[in-house]
Hints:
single chain, Beta-Lactamase, 3 domains, 5-stranded antiparallel sheet, elongated
Amino acid sequence: MAETLASAPEHILQTLAEVALRLCGAYSAGLSLLEDADEHRRFHWRAITGRWSELVGGGTPRDFGPCGTVLDLNEPLLFSHPERDFPYFDEATPKVEDSLLVPFYVGGKALGTIWVVAHDETKRFDAEDLRVMTNLSKFASAAYQTQLSANVRDAANEGLQKAATIEQRFGFIVESSDDAIISKTLEGIITSWNKSAERIFGYSAEEALGQPITMLIPQDRIDEETRIIESLRRGERVAPFDTIRLRKDGTQVHVSVTISPVRDIDGRIVGASKIARDISQRILAQEQQSLLMREMRHRVSNLFLVTNAIVSLSARSANSPAEMARSIQNRLSSLTRAHALARPGLVDSAGRFQLETSLRGLIASIFEPYADDQSEVPARFILAGPDLQISEQSVTNLALVLHELATNSAKYGAMSNAGGVVHISSSLDDENLSLIWKEEGGPEVPGDPEDEGFGGALTRQVILNQFNGKLERDWELSGLRLRIEIPLSRLISPSGKRQ
């Protein structure tokens, strides 16, 4: 845009349309202008790019159309299918699925709109598009005004006036930008400072000009400036990057920085121009999301401890094991869904809950409270055998069984001893999932296999009645051994996968 303003201002409107199309990911873009020739009765489409490019030269009525509505309300607007309200749009093809229009002004007077259009449902304009279009509107206003000024330049003083006009154009752009635009020498001395730099960093132009750019850089990031200057001196491109800078009051501000070399008339690099965008709100939103996820993971780490309390409460109030199992399943449904949210990979890219949970992921989750504090990988169990996707309808009951076994092992079995380990192996055939639970390093005196207690009764109840499966329980010299067999039809959905 700057090059067009300097070398071919008559093409600036077309350049603006092309920039809007690219930055907003639109299908068509253009500018609608009111003109003195018809006393501002129509908007004229003087620049269009994209799929509507053949409509250049067309237009819409000032008092009956989207552009007029935008100027009447003096604010940007979104339109979908304008042909429903303005019949002359029936002639425009392809049709408008979504459009964003932003007013622009010259000398304080509204003269038209900049607009972008999507022709199908794959594109919807959002707040970032509005921000881009608002900045482009300011550029358009400055460009149009300077273009009109250029048309009346004095031929006798053309060279001088051209230089002044170019300077004025750049001045309009720099001062109308919402981003901080700063120039500096290769020695790092500030030579220009716009209003947004004053707003973002707190220094007035009088305070900043002539000062080293390092006054904005935290001590632990001074190396950034050194690397930037070295790259500029070598004529290398400096890729945009996010960083932290200092305000006048000493507080930090997150910025996204773009740096371009400044050359003299002979092409030699004599300085740099820096554009800094305040991204504090974006960083704050990311930090809030990160805190939320850490808090969620912290809470979910105690999920199955809460489950144990639910089991105890249900045992006190239930009249039978079957009634107790139903009560537990109802109470655990919301906890299981919360667990799915906090486990990486159990939520899809759109934020929706996946309907299935892997057997390995479920077992690993249950053993997380018993992991080695110095490692993120649980060290108290060994898992072998194929994986299986457990359906959403079955994961609660299976989680309850596995959690009960792990809890009992931690209290009375192998994991109650420092060196105790639980081996879990899975196997599959055409009809069943088999799980072998084998403990090593448990108490020297085993319990009575027939004395199941409350937890054992609950486990047997779920396996036999809820899964229509089988449970064999025995004590070996090394510790407890269990064999669980569950029909695959009770564990997986019709689309369930084996791995």
